[in-house]
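Hey, I was hoping to borrow your eyes for a little while. I've been staring at a protein lately and its backbone has me curious. You're getting the sequence in one-letter code plus the fold written as tokens. Would you mind checking whether the tokens look sensible for this chain? Here's the protein in full, and shout if anything looks odd to you:
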Amino acid sequence: MSDDDAPFLPRTAPVTARPVPAWAKKKPPKSKAAARTKVTARKYLAPRDPHEHARKIAENVIEAWYQNYGGSSIDVPLGTVGALALLRNPPGLADWILNLQPHELPQLFKEIYLGYWIKQPDLINRAIRLHDWAWNPDPDTQQLRAVHAVTNRAINTGLLDLTGHDDPYWRSESDVLSPLLTGLRHKSDKKWRGEYHTPACVTDLMAQMVVDKDFAQPNMAIREPAVGSGGMLRSVAQRLRELQLDPHDYTWYGNDVDSLAAACAAINTIIWDLGPRAHIGCADSLAPDDDYAKTRAEAAEAFEQRDRYMETASTIVAYHRAFALVDQLTPSKENAA
């Protein structure tokens, strides 16, 4: 595959690396209206049960999306919540985001996904349906207003309190994207797809019953042929951590025939920190030739593509520095006279 055919940035030229996101360096420009009124994250009394908290977030996001006529593109609210869930939660971040204007949000989401693409390009490529819309050079203003409403509602319902922990154990207590995905989909669509995610209480119980130190040998592969948004992988990873084992010591394979579910699983894999050997595929696990070879090949290609982009970016930066140095060393015509 050539760089021009790369699926990750379908509407943009190759990007340069951004070690520090722009939002962390400076305050965003505010309109006059925003300057007059500073929005502050309200205190949300979260349910004690993290799974119930995740459901509440999903309910509020769905309500905000449809109340603001967000449309039928459910990948947009999913991508919005997914991007926010990838953030850690330093003091003041929630208020900073709440004071962004609708047209400023796509840039924030692009920087979040780009930052993780540098580290795990295979998973961000798999999640392309969740962030492709943010690269639209001519976004729909009504859709942006709905994205703004979703962002505010998610933060005010305590999303960052649930997913913004530095410790992966605490941000892996629940799956926010599962109830959001199933809630946004029409009942007939879910029935046609057979998309019924296993409840967290069931996956947690299964992990407790099956996984122990004798079973969980380092370097073993953990496979989920119908991964959905990754709920079973989350439960196993939490069980490993309870046993003082590191999920990074294992190889993870998740597969789903639905590209949107696989995209959610890819984002969750990052949020839950399953490690560098986590592979999410989009294929039919019942097919006789499905042995994750295609998923591994796609992952290898994603890393090669990332390296090509980074090499090009480094070359461009080096050229700019060289030209700037030449300009400094070359006397101008006025000084030469």
DSSP finds 17 helices and three strands in the chain.
